[in-house]
Specification:
Low-confidence stretches of chain A: none
CATH class of the largest domain in chain A: Alpha Beta
Number of domains of chain A: 2
Oligomer: homodimer
CATH topology of the largest domain in chain A: TIM Barrel
Radius of gyration of chain A: 24 Å
Largest sheet of chain A: 8 strands, parallel
CATH superfamily of the largest domain in chain A: Dihydropteroate synthase-like
CATH architecture of the largest domain in chain A: Alpha-Beta Barrel
Largest interface: A-B, 84 and 83 residues
Number of strands of chain A: 15
Number of helices of chain A: 12
Mean pLDDT of chain A: 91
């Protein structure tokens, strides 16, 4: 069993993050914030798919104004994503956002107003404290504060961590501890190393993500390795998969990562063999049919579909239901016990029967609990 | 930079595995071994996609006979996958296979011949030594030797490692050290823990894989986390992604995992942002077009495609070429230096021009090296 790093807890709306609470899947609205109707549609979809928190960009005053109209109708707590302009953070707090994300790299001293970044942060921190909302310090390899780029020449993992910790210390000096941190990099190795180093240095909850991981297979792989490696080591309190793709795909992938490491049990886990020269049934077809039967099952059930007798009986022992292909027929196991033998064209019917029994049983168990 | 675990080296055909050599991507033939024409077609495809070694099932005498006809024409060295029957291993060696995989869990004592599994292994080891080929000890959660199942009640990661080490010791006692090991589990956490423990206990090269990882997103995620976490820690000398899917997909995913951690540089690495309310151009469309331009480029180039000015300039600094979207136009950077500004409908043309310059330059560099 994975031993989790136990951090302090922050609260975003009603959602607890850190302190050993379930890892929260989040995503980010992918349309202009002023397009209120589309924003609310995306938030609804996100909630249905299991996101517990959503982030939304506030790049200008129009967006900050739109927040006021969005928040009363939002089905999920919102985190306002602020860059460059601290005044937008103040506006977002006024609009009753549930949390802020600020990027220390790009809130800089300004000559016009004669304000240092310290002055600006102080105003934001005071407002956040009054409204009782947390701040995520969101350091990012693509927008590291210039002074660290100068010092390290490159956004190394040490640079990301040093920048985050400097910001934490500024907030702590202001008496603000309601902090969550991220140190994202588009380089997976740097990302993992940065979070590992950070986890050993601060007591705050961590928001994990590989930034700019792109689209397609490579985005899946980068996010899975980056977030997954940290979760294996018990590090991470909330995760956001960043893909050049839909929020649906981001949230779905987030849950797959959690499921792969046993952080989350939602629906059926399907184990199936890669097929080889030992194959004795049409496994691809069988797996497709089994998938169709299980896709809407909400109960936590393990199903194994195996093509031969080498690893089949072993996986069968571990699964709630297993279908093991033999020559022209299928054997159905239930918790390792053989319960049915069916001809190849009747395997799926036999599977459905056993599946329904198992679902009923799981439902009974839940009622008892 | 990842510090690799340096193991002993084994040689499969001409391919070196272990000792800090490049991590080898392998896959497994997915049709009956007797279907010689289809086997050879799959081997050809595998080689074209970059697999360096292929495994092939030898479940019966027909398959072992077919090996004799396959091996003289195989474009890649073959590993014969043997279960239950040690005689098939002897036949595969006679057919001049380049390596063996035996599963200690299912070569058992037999009453018929009055042979212990030790007697059987001895015959196989002698033949392997005479032919100068390595043996992979392939322990698998689905087919663990019954005595460990009895002891641990379940294929825990300690059980997998204990079974592997017992087998190693048997081979070592016979004076055989040409060993590669795998301890695959369908449970990602167990798989990672098993290899980590094993890596600390033996000097042999390790073959990584998550077994029975299924199909679709969940297969991608499990393999990426399992193999990726170990590679992040420098563990692993050859990898095999197991998907209920084509060998094409297995090999492609294998390379994506290696690329994500800098083990392999093949073609273009594309970094692109997840899009948000800050987006100022049609990024999905732009990324698709850029992908089309780069898909056949063999040179090792980093391309960033970013939708706005928050992380865009930072990623641009690190990339060989970056396209950063502004309001209705695109800025092209080359190694962080702005080189072109184009209207939105001309961005892709401007990108192609810069891409061709960079490819030419990389080619010149390669000639110099």
């Amino acid at each position: 069993m994975i031993k989790r790093r136990i951090s302090r807890v922050v609260k975003i709306g009603d959602v607890l993050i850190g302190g050993g609470n379930p890892v929260v899947v989040q995503s980010m609205v992918k349309c202009p914030t002023e397009d209120i109707e589309e924003v609310l549609r995306q938030l609804k979809v996100a909630k249905e798919l299991g996101a517990k928190v959503m982030r939304i960009a506030v790049p200008d005053k129009q967006a900050a104004e739109a927040l006021k109209k969005i928040i009363p109708y939002s089905p999920l707590p919102l985190v306002a994503d602020i860059h460059f302009d601290y005044k937008l953070a103040l506006m977002a707090i006024e609009a009753k956002v549930s949390a802020l994300r600020i990027n220390p790299g790009n809130i800089l001293d300004s000559n016009q107003e004669n304000l240092t970044r310290y002055d600006k942060l102080e105003q934001v921190v005071k407002a956040a404290k009054n409204s009782n909302i947390p701040i995520r310090i969101g350091v990012n390899s693509g927008s590291l504060h210039p002074k660290y780029l100068e010092k390290y020449g490159y956004p190394t993992y040490e640079a990301l961590v040093e920048s985050a910790i400097e910001e934490v210390q500024i907030l702590e000096k202001m008496g603000f501890y309601d902090i969550k941190i991220s140190v994202k990099s588009s380089n997976v190795e740097d990302m993992i190393s940065a979070y590992m180093l950070l986890a050993s240095k601060v007591p705050y909850p961590l928001h994990l993500g590989v930034t700019e991981s792109g689209s397609g297979i490579s985005g899946y792989v980068k996010s899975s390795i980056g977030i997954g490696t940290l979760l294996y080591h018990g590090i991470g309190d909330t995760i956001r998969v960043s893909l050049t793709s839909s929020i649906e795909e981001e949230i779905k992938l987030g849950y797959e990562i959690l499921k792969a490491l046993g952080y989350e049990k939602r629906g059926v886990e399907l184990i199936s063999c890669p097929t080889c020269g030992r194959l004795e049934v049409n496994l691809f077809d069988l797996v497709d049919k089994v998938k169709k039967e299980i896709e809407n099952v909400q109960e936590n059930i393990t199903v194994a579909v195996m093509g031969c007798v080498v690893n089949g009986p072993g996986e069968a022992r571990k699964a709630d239901i297993a279908v093991v292909g033999g020559k022209g027929k299928g054997i159905i196991y239930r918790k390792g016990k053989m319960v049915k033998v069916a001809q190849e064209n009747q395997i799926i019917e036999a599977f459905k029967e056993v599946l329904n029994q198992v679902i009923e049983e799981k439902k009974q168990e839940e009622i008892k609990v």
